[in-house]
Amino acid sequence: MRDVRLPEFPCVVPVEVRFRDLDAMGHVNNAVFLTYFEQARLAFWLAIHHGGGPGEAVDPARIGFVVARAECDYASPVRLGERLLVGCRAGDFGTSSFAFDYRIVAAGGAVDAEVRLVASGRTVQVSWDWAEGKKVPVTEELKKRIEAFQATQPRGTARPAHAPTGS
User: Fold this and answer.
1) Residue 150: CB atoms within 10 Å
2) Average pLDDT, rounded, for the chain
3) pTM of the predicted structure, to 2 decimals
4) What ranges in the chain are assigned the alpha helix state H?
């Protein structure tokens, strides 16, 4: 799940750009980046809850949060056929909320190849009780699971993706 090309992110998912992701200008539409964030967020959540492997059906009630805020900073356009890596990490715990940070890079096939920053972003989640229909405090158990998952360091080194100027 880790990738040396995004060493600061414990969860990295590959994404292939699909034709349907494109806008009339031939590059990935801005709204699609939030879907790429969603893919990484779900992979992260399933990984910390020891289940929901590839191809396994997931009960939506197992997703114990709602997204309250989403933001995305675009750095470079993405075209059909590019291979992307989407990194996700969690932090900034509040009483009932926490954040996921994301970085998307365009990466060639080789692990030691240069990567190009495509976008970065953040979502804020609120812990949610679906049965009661209301927010609930972030549990200590969830914090511990996230800390344990994020503690493992990747093997190897890679060139870091450069952040856009002004960030």
Assistant:
1) 17
2) 87
3) 0.85
4) 32-48, 140-151
For residue 64, give the nearest of 121, 145, 9, 6 by alpha carbon.
Answer: 145
Token duo for residue 110: 């080789």
Token readout for 11 is: 């969860």
Query: What does the DSSP 8-state code read for residue 36?
Result: H
Report the alpha-carbon distance of residue 90 to residue 76 in Å, rounded.
Answer: 24
Cα(113)–Cα(93) distance, integer angstroms: 34
Give 144's Cβ-side CA count (13 Å radius).
Answer: 3
CA angle 9, 142, 6 (to 5 degrees): 5
pLDDT digits (tens, 9 = 90+) for 61-114: 778 899 999 999 999 999 999 999 999 999 999 999 999 999 999 997 666 678
Other beta carbons within 10 angstroms of residue 18's beta carbon come to: 11
